Amino acid sequence: MNVTIEDIAKTAGLSGAAISMALRNHPEINPGTCRRVQQIAKIMGYRRNTSARALVTRKHHTVTLVMGSRRYEPMAFLGAYGEIVRAAADRLAQEGYKLLISAEPAGPQEDDRWMPGILQEHSYDGLLVFMPPDPELQRELQSFSGCPYVVIDSPPMEGTSTVVMDEEQQARVLTEYLIKLGHRKIGYVNAIGPSPGHSVQPRLPRIRLREVGYLRAMTDAGLRPSQGNEQTLPVKERLPQLFGGDNSPTALIFYGSGAAYEGIEWLAERGLKVPDDVSVTSITDFPEYRVIGITCPRRRWEEIGSTAVEILLGQLTDPRSEPRSISLMTEVEVRRTTAPPPGTENK
Q1: Per-residue pLDDT tens over the stretch 274-316
Q2: Nearest CA to 310 among 122, 163, 155?
Q3: Looking at the predicted structure, is the pLDDT value of residue 106 above 70?
Q4: Nearest 5°: phi and psi at 65?
Q5: In this predicted structure, what is the pLDDT of residue 57?
Q6: What angle do CA 254, 255, 258 make, to 5 degrees?
């Protein structure tokens, strides 16, 4: 039998209204009384009826994290972005919210766009959304959600709150680091390879932003960028282009860590050692590939999660607040795959 507020009231010798307020640490109730009531409730096995509470307050104290496309494979996604999810859940818990995760069911679906069903069938106060910057998906989200939401790990979108690493800055600082090491021939590989969680499509803005960061750093240093950077060829088609002549690069920047891993294998098959002969870097840093020790921009995963929650909490407090887009800056995390170019004195 469920323990009710009335049961606790009889045991504590207080009114039901006082018990309800004490359980919520209401300022009108003495803190000592709150602690005593909460201890009694715990001993008696009382659990709040959040559904009934939601009917009264119209708040569910729940935030749902939703993946808005099949491009995100749920289990791989959680492995890659676990730090973001944990940080978001911890921050929400501090404010009395629970974080639920909505993942696409396994197996074939009649409709490739499953987000509207999730948004209509579940109760929540706000959303944290991992969603590619797809205009159609964006319209769906705005039409069906009816509540505040923040899009995570996506370039800024008009009229939408977003939190992401600064894509251009990541590529720029990585290129500048290689230049500082002494590299002058730096090749860019605009393919993501088999990285977990999602695939790259040529129309995504982040592809262009990363390419721009590389191009600007090379141009500012008076160096010639590699050719064909706008292509999204598979790694094993792109690398022969870069190493096909006499002007082979001494360093490579890969769009993603999965592609960098493929690149290291390709180089090894041709007798090229990393980093002795060629330095290898990646703009992304997925946990699956960290054991390799690829030099990359430091990913501020936890800060992304907590920042997204801060924006969402602000919108829950004031629904009229304007959307905010935050791009986090970073620095290079030097690992095992980079060194000065061959033949330099400080090698």
Answers
A1: 999 999 999 988 777 788 899 999 988 899 999 999 999 998 8
A2: 163
A3: no
A4: -95, 125
A5: 44
A6: 75
143, burial (CB in 10 Å: exposed 0-12, middle 13-18, buried 19+): exposed
Query: In the structure, what pLDDT confidence band is assigned to residue 119 with cuts at 50, 70 and 90?
Result: low
What Rg, from alpha-carbon coordinates, does the chain have? 25
Phi/psi at 184 (nearest 5 deg)? -120, -20
C-alpha span between 314 and 317 (Å, rounded) = 5
User: Tokens standing for 186?
Assistant: 């730096």
Mean pLDDT over residues 172-190, rounded? 96
> Is residue 204 helix, strand or coil?
coil
C-alpha distance from residue 45 to each of 29, 41, 49, 53 (Å): 22, 6, 13, 18
DSSP assigned state of 295? B
Residues 309 and 326: their CA atoms lie apart, in Å, by 12
Going from the N-terminus, what domains does the chain have, and what CATH number goes with each? 5-48 (no CATH), 62-165+300-329 (3.40.50.2300), 167-298 (3.40.50.2300)
Both structure tokens of 335? 């690992």
List, in sequence order, every beta strand (DSSP E) within the chain.
62-67, 98-102, 126-130, 149-152, 161-165, 186-189, 251-254, 279-282, 296-297, 325-328, 332-333
> What amino acid occupies position 282?
S
Q: Residue 288: left if φ>0, alpha if ψ -120 to 50, beta else—which one?
A: alpha
For 57, 157, 159, 245, 302, the CA distances from 142, given in Å and listed in that order, are 24, 12, 10, 51, 26
Sign, Cα dihedral of 59, 62, 65, 66? negative
CB 60 within 8 A of CB 76: no
